[in-house]
Amino acid sequence: MSKQEQTRQRVLELIEGLDVGEAIPSERRLSSDLGISRLTLRAAVEDLVRDGYLVRRHGSGTFVSHPKIAQQLTLTSFSEDMRRRGMVPSSRTLRLEEVHAGADLGRALNVSPATKVVRIQRLRLADDETMAIETLHVPQPFVPGLTRELLEDGSFYELLEQRYGVVIVSGVQTIEPTVTDEEESALLGVPLHSPAFLFERTTQDADGRTVEFVRSVYRGDRYRLVAELSQRRGRELQPVGIEFAAGAPGDGA
Description:
Arc Repressor Mutant, subunit A, six-stranded antiparallel β-sheet, three-stranded antiparallel β-sheet
């Protein structure tokens, strides 16, 4: 094990004894206490910041952050994932409106450009902490009479199934890194141009109808992508699942 890896483990042991939001000792004190150079310590701390164990606050210091939680990527809802972790999911509906699909949404939803589409923008939270901004697009015939009250503090997938009889059975999702713009930063409570993940998903019901197109921006400091690999005879290693920290991003539910 390298000196930096040893230092990382020792700082991790220190973090385990601190509460979330508590500051770690100064770089000068830590390097003295651990008997290592400040350069080695700085590299180890930077690793822990990238992995989400610590967060730097300009002019204030370095603080213990919420741990990143691994989660298998499936067609489960955000609400279900958070409840399974003992966290309380909630949402704030920022926008609910009907628009014409137009060319781009029409292609994504496989409907005519003239079809009315319900656009829903929600801020997703867990234990009252902001996690993501979701913008859902659903053809209006799937969700007649949809209101803000029906959307609050619940799973959209459960609402689709229980109220409208629409069951999601499959989906295709793309993932790419991005940074937050001014509006996203303000809503998520993070600095401008913070690292984030952009998820875009389309889902289908049992009849093959496209039910929704979702565009979600998730905080990069709360999520970590992990690929599980399996060996298939005569083929290269293939990913059989993706894990995320703190939920299944982009599920729109």
